[in-house]
Structures are given as C-alpha cells and as structure tokens.
Design brief:
The structure is a homodimer.
Chain A: H1 16-23, E1 30-31, H2 44-56, H3 59-62, H4 72-84, E2 94-97, H5 99-111, E3 117-122, H6 126-132, E4 138-145, E5 148-149, H7 151-160, E6 166-169, H8 183-196, E7 199-203, E8 228-233, E9 245-248, H9 251-265, H10 270-282, H11 285-310, E10 316-317, E11 325-329, H12 336-348, E12 350-351, E13 353-354, E14 367-371, H13 377-400
Parallel strand pairs in A: 1-12, 3-4, 3-6, 6-7, 7-8
Antiparallel strand pairs in A: 2-9, 4-5, 8-9, 10-11, 11-14, 13-14
Helix pairs in contact in A: 2-10, 5-6, 5-9, 7-8, 11-13, 12-13
Chain lengths: 401, 401
C-alpha cells in the first residue's frame, strides 16, 4: 500500500544519542552517554511532602488548569532567584516551561522561518539542534576554546550574516564540552549583540551546579536592550522528571512566548509547579544544591584522575568547573563513533556519546562526550579504566600498522 | 529605543478567550467561559496515594528522564483502553503528550508548511487554531449540523483542495458546539479521506464524558490505511493539571511525532506518567468516570432547562450528549462579543465565550459558547437566569427601536 500523504510530512532524523542509548541499555555496559543527573540525589522525602500538600490542601487549584505562563507564585520565586544573579526582572518576565528544552522550541518557533540563520557554538547542544531543525534554519558556527566562544570569529560571522536571527550559547559548563565562557567574553558577546542587533539565547541548565571557582554573571545580567532570552531549569537542581524550566525575557518577548506556549501545550503541569513552589517555600534548596555540587566534584575528579592515569597521551580532555560532562579530543582521523560501535561497546563494554552530531554544520568525528554524573564511583573508575586500556591498545595498533 | 530584532519575530495574536477570562476574573461575575472540568470531582485521596508511591517507592526512576514517547507501562495501559474502543494498536503506536493540545502542535509541525491547507469544522476548537496558526496554514472550513460535519460539503472541499494536509475534527461533543458526529458520517468521513488520500486528525478530549446515549466508535476504529491520528486526554477524566494526553498513530507517524516531541520538550513529566499508570493499576477509573458523567448530565439538564425557561425564543442552543458545552445561536446581526462587553458583564455579571474566534475563516458574531462544567448548580441557575432576563430585555429593546 502506497500512501502519498506520508510524502507530505517533514522528515525527522532520529537522534544519534537516542540510538546509542539503546545500544547502551545492556546492564553489562557502563554508559557515560546519557546526560542524566545522579538519581540518588533526588530529595524524595521532601518532594513527597510538598506533593502531598499540593494535592490534599491545594488540589482543587493545583490539579486544575491555570494561566499559560505558569502559576504566579512560582514565577515570583524564580524572579527573586534571578535577581540574586543580577538579572532585573519581575514575575511577568518569567515564563514556566516544560524544561529548558521547551524554550529552545518556542524561541525558534517565534523567530525562525525556513532558511533563517542561527549562530551556534561549535560544538553545541544536540537537543538544541533537535529543537531548531524542524523550523529548517541554516546554521553558522563559532569555534570554542577553553574560555568559550571565539569572539573574534563571532564578529566575523555576524558581519557576514547581518540577518542572523539569534546566537545560541550555553555559557556555563557547556553541553557537550564542559567549557565556561569567561567574564570578558560575556561582556564582549553582549556588546557585539547590541552592535549587530541580534538576539542572544542564553541556555543555563547546569549553571547552579558549579563545584569549583566563582560563579560568573549571566550574560542576561549585562543586557540593557532586552535582547537576551535566558533559559533556566529545575532538572539538575531538583529532578528532570518534573519537567520544569523557565525563560526570562522582556515583557514583549515573554508575552509572545506565552501565546506560543498556549498553542503548544496550554501550560505546564499545575501540580508540579505548585509542588516546586512549595518546595522553595518549605525547604532551603541551597544545602541540597551544595550536596549535588560536592558529589559531582568528587565524580569529576575521579573521572579526570582515571583518565590521566589510564588514557593514552594523545587523548586530551576538558576540565569543567561544573555541570556533568568532559569532552574528549582524539587525534585527527580517529572516528569516535566507529570506535564505540566496533571496539568500546563489544570489547570494553563502555558507552559514551560520539561527538560528531554536536556540530551543527561540519561534523568532526574525533571527539566524544563523557558524563560523570550518572554512574557510581566504582563504575566510573572501572569503565574509564577499561576504556583507557582499550584506547592504549588501539593507539599502539595504529602506530604498529 | 527601537530594536529591529523585534520586527523579525512572528506576530502572535492574543487569544480572545484569554482576554475575556481576564475580564471574568471578578468573583462577582459568574463565568461560563472557561472549558474547565469540575474541580470538586478530582480524586484527591487516590491521586495523593499514587503520587506518594511513585515518589517514595519509584522515585529514582519516576523523577529521572525517560524515553520521549513516555513510560512503556502507561503506553501499554492506554493501548489496552484503546483496544476496547475498537482501535487496534500496541504501545509503540501510543505517544504520551503534554495534554491532547500538544498533539495539535506536533501534527501541524510534522505536516504543515506556510500556506498549506488544513480543513476544519466550522466552528472549530479555538485551541487548535492557536496550535496550527504559528505554522501559517490556510484553512478551508466545513459547515456542521446536529450530526457533525456536512459530508457533502467536505467532499466538495476535498475535490477543490487536492493538496489538503489534514482534516481536523472533534467528533464527540465538539468544542465549541457540543455536537457529536453520527455513525454514518464517521464512516463516510473515513471513506472520503481514503479516496482523497488525506490524513484525519481525530481529537477526543471529551469522548469518555458521554452522559446520554451509546458511545459511537472512534473514526480511528474504521481506519484501514493508517491515516487517522487519534488524540486522547486524561484532562477531563482525571485532572487537567497533570497535563497528560496521548496520540495513537501508525508506527511511522508515532516515530516522527516522538522525534518532534524530543525536540519540543524532551518528554512529559515522568512522575505524572508514573502516578497515572499507578492510578490505572490501583483503582478502577470507571466508577470515577461514571460519577463525572452523572454530575455533568445534571448540570447540563439544569442549564438547558434554565435556558428554556428564561431565554427569548429567538436564541437556539445545542443539546449535547456529553462534554462540557452548549452553543448558542442568536439572531442574524446580533454581536455576542459586543453584547457581553457592553451588557452581560456590566449588567448581568455573566461571562461566556463569544463565538466569532471559533471560526477559522469567516467569523460569525451571533454565537456563544457556554460551559456547564465549572459552576455549581446554584450559580448555573442564577447566572443563566440573569443572562436570560437581560437577553429578553435586549430583544424587546431591539424590536421597539
């Protein structure tokens, strides 16, 4: 049976991560692939308590529809947290989202027509490309170093693309590289955006999971022209299964995004918003975040120490001050995807995310994203050691051949 | 300060309903506007129990990320419920959504490019237009009578628009009219869709809230060519604040929608999915639904009886067998929006939804949607009586002038 209507649907490419995660579902395999927070850190007792209050004491409201931008109380609480970060805003500037991810979709829906240009870091967050791609943009990419986006390269890109719609950046502990944009580059970035009249989409899911050094001001805190759309998330500081994030934007942009949110899914779960609002009221979230930071610092140190001890010299890696990832760079010509399929999975029983799909324009196969957040200390040591031994063998084999 | 980037964003029109609901926020006003279920029917104790189990016993999974199409257990439970409706499917055909509303967005995202044609009922669900409009479709509309879409008119529309992307229908107790598509028209509709090779988007949020007569088979149950995308919802049988609905579609379409869901918001709340799955396992939802039906039947009867007793003869209304709405038709030339602003709100302190925005192409101002689900019996009687008295006065004034 040939059905023509199928030809009239857009083609959607399966996510490379998704396919690899299916490979890594074998329990014998130690996976550093998924960008999952450590589930042992979820505050179950506290969450149970606030859900119980939300349902039994507030259920007639908390299980009903509410406004599309989210319950006012939680928006006010977020605005207050944002003020502490140097972002001037009130609850009307805050829009509650189905995770930060939904902000990527709605901003693209608001701004991008087929063929419009988005500027991304190179590499960039794969989920952002999944959100943007259905709107059929073109991409221009800006290389990164250990201080984030190369601002000179960005200026050349802006000068060559005056109609660029927005610059997408993950300034804190970027996914996939773990790199943080320096303070001076944050200031240069906002100046460039002002000069070239372009929107910045600042995505900060890992921002509060800084385990070393001082927190840097968000780009949005330098925004005097209402051109930064800031995205935050409860996924890494509370739990991703709640699906709650937020946008902070100008009144005008927040209203546009709210109307798009209304059409996209009406609103976020009233119950989950009510429960998180109660959580912020009833408990001090800061010691909880401090505990996450401490745990991830220990895991990051363990992973990087194990890499130093077991990996061949030819493999370099980033040193994140927060977040969940380090980024491996192999020698030119090394295909991390092929190596995983043909050797790491069958021989070392280890999975990671090959780096190629993180590049919006020109895939570079000699990279991999490795997450230290999900696995136990024992499995981090065991898995990274196994991968290191295999990589050393492979390097020797390559040199011998 | 003039910022050019704002000109590069799409224009989003505020929802007419939203503006009117803000007018109706005054507690002195009896609003029949919102399409809200009766919150006194939410099963708070049972929901509290399943959320507690989901968090305390399953929290490491239930608060973590999961697959984008939703937890397998809940998909299997929905597939089983669908089988009882005559829809052959398995859990791979089911995609959990952020309310049925998200299905409208994702189907439009999958199928609609700027200028593509969508066929809707006339009038149609306002939220569907809010979901479709950002993709900039054209619309063709098909008139309805008491048995749903006029199938002869639909055939003429299809013949004149061979490239139509899909037909959008709410066959059970339609929003806004409360009308149900007859069995024979359901069969004629699927035959026409097969002949003209077009997709049907069957949206059924009120389907299980039938309080009179026999349930009719879903259009999807007659689908032999995988061209019907079925949308269901827990909003009216459990609680809208959970934001859970589902799509049933062919393997191919379900996979495409899942990838779009991944980009749009990653997934629904794992916790809410786990809790609803536990609810379906732990409790019998059927007596709960029976209670909703009984309550809405009583309220519908009260509202329609009060309309019969108090409204002028010139106003006609639909007689729904389920759902939450009746649809008023005033004399030609009557402007229900203007009447609400200028008289019903200030004089009778009553709100409804003026009908004009429910028409995708040509707004007809002499209609209104009235919901009997939200208000208490006392307020239904009081509000409808006040509106009836005011309408009678208005009719007399119009005849006298």
């Amino acid at each position: 049976m040939t059905i023509r209507f199928a030809e009239r649907m857009i083609n959607v490419k399966p996510s490379a991560i998704r396919e690899l995660l299916q490979l890594g579902a074998d329990p014998a395999i130690i996976s550093f692939g998924g960008g999952y927070p450590d589930a042992s850190l979820f505050p179950l007792e506290q969450l149970n308590s606030v859900f119980q209050t939300a349902i039994l004491d507030q259920g007639r409201d908390a299980l009903q529809y509410t406004v599309s931008n989210g319950i006012p109380k939680l928006r006010a609480q977020i605005a207050e947290r944002m003020a502490k970060e140097g972002i001037k805003c009130n609850q009307e500037n805050v829009l509650i989202l189905q995770g930060g991810q939904q902000g990527l979709d709605l901003v693209a829906k608001m701004m991008v027509n087929k063929g419009d240009l988005i500027i991304t870091e190179d590499p960039t967050f794969l989920g952002a490309l999944a959100a943007f791609n259905p709107y059929e943009p073109r991409y221009a990419t800006v290389p990164m170093d250990k201080d984030g986006m190369d601002i000179n390269a960005l200026e050349r890109t802006l000068a060559a693309n005056l109609e660029a719609k927005f610059i997408y950046t993950v300034p804190d502990f970027q996914n996939p590289t773990g790199v943080t944009m320096s303070l001076s580059r944050r200031k240069e970035l906002i100046e460039l955006a002002n000069r070239y009249d372009v929107v910045i989409l600042e995505d900060t899911p890992y921002r509060e999971v800084r385990f070393e050094g001082e927190s840097l001001p968000p780009i949005k805190s330098f925004d005097t022209e209402d051109r930064v759309i800031y995205l935050g998330s409860f996924s890494k500081i509370l739990a991703p299964g709640l699906r709650l994030g937020w946008a902070v934007a100008s009144d005008d942009i927040a209203q546009r995004l709210t109307l798009l949110k209304l059409g996209a899914d009406t609103q976020c779960s009233t119950l989950n918003m009510a429960a998180v609002s109660l959580f912020l009221d009833s408990f001090d979230i800061e010691p909880h975040i401090a505990n996450i930071r401490q745990t991830y610092l220990r895991k990051k140190n363990l992973m990087l120490d194990t890499i130093r001890q077991t990996f061949p010299q030819e493999v370099s890696f980033t040193e994140p001050s927060g977040g969940m990832f380090t980024w491996l760079t192999f020698e030119y010509g090394f295909d991390a995807g092929r190596f995983m399929r043909e050797r790491a999975l069958p021989e070392a029983k280890v999975a990671y995310v090959p780096g190629a799909p993180f590049f919006a324009v020109e895939p570079k196969p000699n990279h991999a994203r490795v997450s230290y957040s999900t696995q136990t200390d024992e499995r981090i040591f065991e898995g990274i050691s196994r991968l290191g031994r295999l990589l050393k063998t492979a390097v020797h084999q390559a040199k011998a051949s």
